[in-house]
Design a protein that fits this description.
By secondary structure, the protein is an alpha/beta fold. It has 3 domains: 4-61, no CATH class; 74-324, Type I PLP-dependent aspartate aminotransferase-like (Major domain) (Aspartate Aminotransferase, domain 2); 331-459, Aspartate Aminotransferase, domain 1. 47% of the residues lie in helices and 14% in strands. The protein contains 18 helices and 17 strands. The protein has helices at 4-7, 17-30, 36-61, 74-82, 112-127, 139-154, 177-181, 200-210, 228-237, 250-254, 261-264, 292-309, 318-352, 380-389, 418-422, 427-441, 447-459, 471-479; strands at residues 63-64, 93-95, 101-104, 131-133, 158-161, 185-188, 191-192, 197-198, 214-218, 241-245, 268-274, 278-287, 356-357, 369-373, 392-393, 395-397, 412-416. The strands form 5 sheets. The chain has a 7-stranded mixed β-sheet with strand order 4-12-11-10-9-5-6, with helices on both faces. β5 (158-161), α7 (177-181) and β6 (185-188) form a beta-alpha-beta unit. α4 packs antiparallel against α13, α6 crosses α12 (292-309) and α8 packs parallel to α9. The radius of gyration is 24 Å and the shape is globular. The chain starts with a helix and ends with a helix. Bound molecules: pyridoxal-5'-phosphate. Residues 68, 138-140, 143, 169, 171, 218-220, 245, 247-248, 272, 283 line the site of pyridoxal-5'-phosphate.
Length: 482
Amino acid sequence: MKHAYFTKPSPLKTLGINELIAKGGKLREEHGRLTMDDFFFEWILNLIEATKNHEKYREKECINLIASEGLKSPAVREMLSICQDLESRYAEGTNTLEGLVKERYYQGQKYITPIENLVASLLKKLFNCTWVDIRLVSGTHANLATFKGLSMVTRNNKMIVAPLRCGAHISHDYTGLAGSIIGLETINHAYDLDELNIDPDKSATIIEATRPGIVTFGGSLFLFPHPVKELVEVSREVGAYIVYDAAHVLGLIAGGQFQDPLREGADFITSSTHKTFPGPQGGVILANSDTERMREAIKSVQHSVFPLSTSNTHLGRLPAVGLVALEMKLFGEELAKQTIRNAQIAGEYLYENGLKVLGENKGFTRSHQLAIDVQAYGGGKVVAEKLEKANIILNKNLLPYDDQRNRENPSGIRVGFQDVTRRGFMKDDIQHLCDLMLDVIRNRKTPSQVRGEVMELRKKFTEIKYGFKSVEEVINYVGKYA
Ligand SMILES: Cc1ncc(COP(=O)(O)O)c(C=O)c1O
């Protein structure tokens, strides 16, 4: 039954939320009968409308090239929608050194414990490691727990990170989580602008001289695999743990198409579960618990997860994460290969058509991303905003040679190809998309002229590939083998 309030005609019906807020006091004076309840009901209607509009706009009308976002399959979405009760529950407690449930402080865990254990087992198998923590609610949370845990166990508050402008995430930086929340002193890796990568020789000297407790790799602008194996020995010598932040590239690692950090000598992988790994928003930490050194570190990281930084662990996302592990096992290689291929095709095409795509001497990228210098067209902010008007959504980005303080108006844009690849874009579609981007960037057409063409192109792709269409399809598929 419709609530009586929603059927009541309201004098505010025609106003948008911003007008309501701006004119709220005045309107109340003009219409003495307006109460706080009127505002509440109007805001709820506006909220529902904005939500529906968002779903249509970003899901159906835009082409999404934000490199840090993922696209879930229909089966994964369905799995999330099944977890209505689970999404309301708690499972605080401790885990074993295999990443399984040891003790829970709440009753009612009859099925929650197997769910947590199954998801942990699926991820350990997929990434070929012996320990995982799935309780993190985001990639930033995974970094928080790992950096804090390791700084406690090493009693060392120095951490080596890529410079922010060269791709580190804000959570690695002294101005963000690492420095401002955990109190770590961050020291920059040396960075080679020609290679668009960490300089292993110079960084080895920095590690030797500064003797940090943590050496990090990985980042948000992440075009080429980082020199992990080159820096393992010196990191071990000074007693540092290596943390590889795979937030952007976890799906590519799962598909075997990027570096394999744990095999190269990284001690921990931290990650989001919703970028190239196309799951629900959440976080994860992976490692091997096979040495005393690692077991000590893992215990400290686990302590940082619980009780230091979690209470509820957003349980409702976990079965969907497990399902993504299956999708990545079956389709991850093909998806990762095509994602990287699409990024390289776009790099080549945009470069040939006059854009300054970074890394041309190295094939532009080995990941899902491109970095493009658009200073000649007004800078990253201007270009990203113009493309947005054409319904092509990407973000401005600092480039490795930018002034770090220039975050508001950096030289570059970052373009990610994981979403369009999962929708089925192949070479011709990618080049078509690049033409539309060039039309806007080079002012060949106005953004509103291009918007219709973008929506037409988007409409051609009606499926999400490299995954399952429904939970039933998963059951039928797996049932054949189980
Ligand atoms: C390298 C890196 N680490 C961590 C994060 C944070 O992840 P989350 O948004 O899941 O907190 C990001 C976000 O984009 C990232 O790029």
